[in-house]
Amino acid sequence: MEETSAGGDRRRTAEQPPSTAEGVPKKRLRVMVAVDESDASLYALKWTLSNLFNKPAGGEDPEVEPDPEQGMVTVVHVVQPFERYTFPAEAAMYTSASMVESVRKAQRQTAAQLVSRAFQVCKETKIKAETLILEGDPKEMICQAVEEMHFDLLVLSSRGFGAIKRALLGSISDFCAHHAKCPVLIVKPPGHK
Q1: 16 is a domain residue
Q2: Pfam families in the record, alphabetically (predicted)?
Q3: Which H or E run contains 39?
Q4: What is the pTM of this model?
């Protein structure tokens, strides 16, 4: 409810929720940042933290806790499943179960280290963050997670594939830009052509 003072100023009463200058209630931003082993994805995470979130009033004080009012970043990494069969030029080869388990273990360790490093970057900037490791096709798993968890924004890095490589391998950022159920921001690293 608004009241008008004798001078014509409008004031909000305590019954109304706080709002922004435009009169729209402030919403906590929920952002998913997809990371992989590339430096470009770490750059995209750092760009997101410094450009989309305000730093808390405490500045560089290590005792200041993340402010949940700023929103939250979810760092996601998708591990591609290791295929038991490989197809060299001459004949199909079968990979042993112990070899498959060894590769999967290495993938899990790499994924854990990667999201741990990304989480540390978030922690240093005092932004509330969580991590998520998924398994499957990265393009589809990212879009599925966005839809299921209702993110406001998906941030991806551009790896700079040329037209031929993009046509053969497909571009995760291109796929997500067309299929994700939220706005998508593709961050290009400095010097990217």
Answers
A1: no
A2: Usp
A3: helix 39-52
A4: 0.71
